[in-house]
Amino acid sequence: MRILACNDDGIHAEGLRVLVEELRREHEVFILAPDQERSGVSHAMSLRGPGKIKRHAEGEYSCSGTPADCVILAGLGAVPFSPELVVSGINRGPNLGTDIIYSGTCGAARQAILQGWPAIAVSCASFHEPLRYLGAASFVRRHLAGLLAGRGDGSFINVNAPSSADEGLEGAWARPCRRRYRDKLRTYEAPDGYTYCFLSDTLIETLPEPGSDHEIVGEGRVAVSAILALPQAEAPLTPVQFGARHG
Description:
Blueprint: E1 2-6, H1 14-23, E2 28-34, E3 53-57, E4 60-63, H2 67-75, E5 85-92, H3 99-102, H4 104-114, E6 119-124, H5 134-142, H6 144-149, E7 155-161, E8 171-173, E9 179-189, E10 195-206, H7 213-218, E11 222-228
Helix pairs in contact: 1-5, 2-4
């Protein structure tokens, strides 16, 4: 299979390198990734100014833009590769539940769906060094067909794996959890007249839900979720008439 590999941690990130090395055991893999870290940019796109692409090696390119930009540019023929699948990751840190909204890793996968390509976002659900990505990479390679078969129409697959070098990790389908971010703000009044604001000491509260991706990863398994990328219109439970208001 022809696979485009992307991420939001940048082209030199260890997670991307481990994923690509593992997938290249069985597939043709091309890299187009941001030239530096773009964590938390969600589905941001560069709408003004040129995007710059740099070749690093055969089949390996970086882009000056966002993860979504990388997928857009690949689709428009900016690089000599037309993929059958986009795999984004392996992210340094979890993309569980609510994290998906903010994630550049998931933004690339979502953009792939919008362009008509199947996509998988992959994350190592830990912040504690040393991070071990091989377990996640091996899981994706071994279960690639099953992951794609479980993808609903207009959805991408979101994979969160424990930090592990175990090439035999087990996985389970999971529902995305709900997370609340308790940020603290530090400010600095600078001589240049600006107030500099820093988010620090963020605490993440995860609501306990049976069968959630957070629970599955906490059990040492790989959590797999199908995430809807395309907007779906649904009729309200109680039909409401919308008309002009008089009087």
